[in-house]
Design brief:
The chain is α+β, with helices and mostly antiparallel strands and about 190 residues long. The chain has helices at about 25-30, 50-55, 100-105, 145-155, 175-180, 190-194, and strands at about 10, 20-25, 35-40, 45, 55-60, 70, 75-80, 80-85, 125, 140-145. The longest helix is centred in the N-terminal third of the chain and has 9 residues, at about 25-30.
């Protein structure tokens, strides 16, 4: 995994509403291809990649705080923290439709019975009220579970097998899912509070 995969960029739609967080590599790819523009979080100016290089790059022999810059053979380039899409991309949904990925994000990647970390590829979703007893697939009836806990509970209620939920399931807001597990930089605050 490269260092580019560790950095997160806030993505705004064309009218500057936050719609996603994305890895720095993907954000830069969108900017290179003209699908997005870099937003200077201090001045709110919008830049293409060439304009960003002209404004925010310094020679590699300068002293900079390296975690804030990308290094090339001859330059240090300031890492973008916020990008805005070049095309509209609509309004973000007010409600959040149920999804397995959303359950994973809401529950912070942890089994809601034993708190074990669950990898996305190994995740299972448990229905608190089993489907065999009329339980529905929705935010308030589904939780992330490790395979062991899900198998142990099977088609019973948690209390019937001596299990207890760490936290009651809830329907998250768009902002809760957007920022789940992300350390929010100060540069994002003006865009999130708007």
């Amino acid at each position: 995994m490269s260092r580019l995969d560790n950095d997160v960029v806030l993505t705004l739609n064309r009218i500057w509403q936050p719609i996603a967080t994305t890895g720095l590599r993907k954000a830069m790819n969108m900017v290179f291809r003209g699908r997005a523009r870099v937003v200077d979080a201090d001045t709110f100016q919008i830049f293409t990649w060439d304009q960003w290089l002209a404004e925010k790059a310094v020679a590699a022999d300068n002293h900079v705080i390296e975690r804030d810059y990308l290094r090339t053979a001859t330059l240090f380039v300031r890492k973008p923290q916020v990008v805005t899409l070049a095309r509209y991309a609509g309004y973000p949904n007010r409600g959040v439709p149920y999804s397995r990925r959303g359950v994973y994000e809401r529950d912070s990647g942890r089994c809601q019975f034993c708190l074990e970390h669950v990898r996305k590829k190994d995740m299972t979703v448990d229905h608190i009220l089993p489907q065999s007893r009329g339980g529905r697939t929705n935010w308030t009836n589904c939780v992330l579970a490790c395979a062991g806990c899900n198998h142990r509970k099977a088609d019973r209620l948690p209390h019937e097998v001596g299990m207890k939920l760490v936290r009651e399931p809830f329907q998250p807001t768009r902002e809760q899912l957007l920022l789940q597990g992300v350390d929010v930089p100060a540069a994002w605050r003006p865009f999130l509070d708007a």
